Amino acid sequence: xxxxxxxxxxxxxxxxxxxxxxxxxxxxxxxxxxxxxxxxxxxxxxxxxxxxxxxxxxxxxxxxxxxxxxxxxxxxxxxxxxxxxxxxxxxxxxxxxxxxxxxxxxxxxxxxxxxxxxxxxxxxxxxxxxxxxxxxxxxxxxxxxxxxxxxxxxxxxxxxxxxxxxxxxxxxxxxxxxxxx
Length: 181
What we know:
Blueprint: E1 4-7, E2 10-13, H1 14-30, H2 34-55, E3 58-64, H3 70-87, E4 92-96, H4 104-113, E5 118-123, H5 130-145, E6 153-156, H6 166-178
Parallel strand pairs: 3-4, 3-5, 5-6
Antiparallel strand pairs: 1-2
Helix pairs in contact: 4-5
């Protein structure tokens, strides 16, 4: 069950959200002209921000190490498809750092060809080893150089294993085996 709601980067409890909705409904009943005025002021205030957001098209690359084992490489592509549905982002590509296609360069190209002008690369790795600190940034830089005239920006996220939620995933995986002990 949801206990909070996310609005424009702000979180509030469902109770506070309900009170806010009730307040605006009451204001709308009493003074019907107030809500359109508020909406117009809101639109004018954030119009420049909205235009800026609309011109940025995000592409996400999820990159793993790559393997000689086809099933391991296929697993990443299945994960990418699941993430694309989950995130509702229109441009999500998978890449293997080495040993197999698609490469980071070809995934970068696919993102740009689909209209992305901002690439977010997520290393599907557990820690910040040499691949995350050196190899992937170098490969991303090389891929971006091919599009320097298009002003494509990119960023590398923290690897998967650095996220606090990984602890719950480990616990969820280990817990069933604790019952057998």
